[in-house]
């Protein structure tokens, strides 16, 4: 099967445990105001077969150690779900750890069975909760958060390990009431290993200029260290203690 790739990172250290080969796929249905990769939104990218990706990953397996492996990110990787599934199934047979970095927006709770092949070959999901408030999420990303939260519950049912990620943006996502609501939701899940707070940054602004896109957060500064610490405290950031 063929898929479309935006880029690769051969020694990723922030997209899952250990050293990871990160595949960024092309295409995304969301339009997050803080997105730093707007060049990954539209269709296109470079075509690769699943076998091509597997061969690339296996060249680096000696660097993975006990924790590393592959992470497929985006864009939104579930836009190419069958392609990712084939990659993961092949790599699982090779003993490589698989990780999916997703917003969860494309999950459909009415068609759970369609997603089982992917998640049965996925060791870890990095789930980005854009916003816990549905209307605020629509304003922030252009889409609802219902599918994201439904995916979290489904992964909990399946027992698939999950790291929750939340981008902290002044005013847009950084209010104590919203952070407490995320914490209350994640506390209902038994499969959450870790919660990560990702402070908003402006490094993607230059890409918008090159693409001719309006950067709607112009003038918004990254959160202060105090607000980052506050968010981490409320959310219980870091690895969760196991019973």
Count of helical stretches: 8
Main β sheet profile: 9 strands, mixed
CATH superfamily: Aldolase class I
In N-to-C order, the SSE pattern is EEEHEHEHEHHEHEHHE
How many individual β-strands?
9
Q: How many structural units, i.e. domains?
A: 1
CA radius of gyration: 17 Å
Estimate the mean pLDDT confidence.
96
How far the N terminus sits from the C terminus, by CA atoms, comes to 42 Å
CATH topology: TIM Barrel
Structural class: alpha/beta
Q: Can you list the strand order of the major beta sheet? A: 3-1-2-4-5-6-7-8-9
Question: What is the helix content?
Answer: 25-40%
Q: Which strand-content bin applies to the residues?
A: 15-25%
Description:
The chain is an alpha/beta fold. It has a single domain (2-239), classed as Aldolase class I (TIM Barrel, Alpha-Beta Barrel). It is built from 8 helices and 9 strands. It has a 9-stranded mixed sheet with strand order 3-1-2-4-5-6-7-8-9. A hairpin with a 7-residue loop joins strand 1 and strand 2 (20-25). Helix 1 (50-58) packs across helix 2, helix 2 runs parallel beside helix 3 (112-119) and helix 6 (176-186) packs parallel to helix 8 (225-235).
Keywords:
single chain, alpha/beta, 9-stranded mixed β-sheet
Question: Short summary of the structure?
Answer:
33% of the residues lie in helices and 23% in strands. By secondary structure, the protein is α/β, with parallel strands linked by helices.
């Amino acid at each position: 099967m063929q898929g479309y790739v935006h880029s690769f990172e051969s020694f990723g250290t922030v997209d899952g445990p250990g050293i990871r080969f990160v595949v960024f796929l092309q295409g995304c249905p969301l339009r997050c105001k803080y997105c730093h990769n707007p060049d990954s939104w539209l269709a296109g990218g470079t075509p690769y077969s699943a076998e091509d990706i597997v061969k690339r990953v296996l060249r680096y397996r000696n660097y993975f150690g006990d924790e590393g492996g592959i992470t497929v990110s985006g864009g939104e990787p579930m836009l190419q779900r069958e392609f990712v599934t084939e990659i993961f199934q092949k790599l699982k047979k090779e003993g490589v750890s698989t990780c999916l970095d997703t917003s969860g927006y494309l999950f459909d709770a009415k068609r759970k069975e369609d997603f089982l092949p992917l998640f049965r070959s996925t060791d870890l999901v990095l789930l980005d909760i854009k916003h816990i408030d549905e209307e605020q999420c629509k304003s922030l990303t252009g889409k609802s958060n219902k599918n994201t939260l439904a995916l979290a519950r489904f992964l909990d049912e399946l027992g698939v390990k999950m790291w929750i990620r939340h981008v902290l943006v002044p005013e847009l996502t950084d209010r104590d009431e919203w952070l407490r609501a995320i914490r209350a939701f994640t506390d209902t899940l038994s499969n959450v290993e870790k919660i990560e707070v990702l402070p908003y940054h402006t490094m993607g602004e230059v890409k918008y200029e090159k693409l001719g896109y309006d950067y709607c957060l112009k003038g918004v500064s990254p959160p202060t260290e105090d607000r980052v610490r506050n968010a981490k405290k409320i959310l219980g950031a870091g690895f969760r203690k196991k019973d």
